[in-house]
Amino acid sequence: MASQGQGARIGDILSTELRAYDLSRISMAGPDIFFEPKLATTMALLVHELTTNAAKHGALSCAAGKLSILWSLADKTLKLEWREAVDHPCSFHHAIAGLACNYYPVPLISSGEPLRRFSRIPG
User: Fold this and answer.
1) pLDDT tens-digit profile of 55-99?
2) Is the Cβ–Cβ distance between 84 and 59 less than 8 Å?
3) Which of 25, 37, 72, 75 is a good FRET partner for 107, with 20 to 30 A between their CA atoms?
4) What is the dihedral sign for C-alpha 108, 114, 116, 120?
5) Cβ contact 58:49 at 8 Å
């Protein structure tokens, strides 16, 4: 993937990171987007962090959890929607943090420069 200097598709990044989990609890949808190597690395790090948090504290930490990932592209900006839901909380902590919806607008830069902006908009 990106580590080989050839870039990666968003679907491949997500599938690689989430393959250790029960995929029947995970839905993913969006257009086929290819990232050049630097953007692919940045996206892989973002997805890894979100997945790790979901595995430790959220939807992927118990059998009742579900994860929905949607993405779209408009004006050279990727909109990533990461939704976690736990129908029956696994613990008191999950009862508080069991639902999450975050949007991550990420500008796509075609020149190969690193991302200039990263922002988290509370859901």
Assistant:
1) 987 889 888 889 999 998 888 788 888 888 876 555 534 344 444
2) yes
3) 25
4) positive
5) no
Amino acid letter, residue 121 = I
DSSP code, position 60: G
d(CA 30, CA 85): 20
**Residue 21: predicted pLDDT:** 92
Structure tokens at 34: 């290819």
- Cβ–Cβ under 8 Å, residues 17 and 40: no
What are the contacts of 18-27 at 24+ separation with CB within 8 A? 18/51, 18/67, 21/55, 21/60, 22/63, 25/59, 25/60, 25/65, 25/66, 25/67, 26/66, 26/67, 26/68, 26/69, 27/66, 27/67, 27/68, 27/69
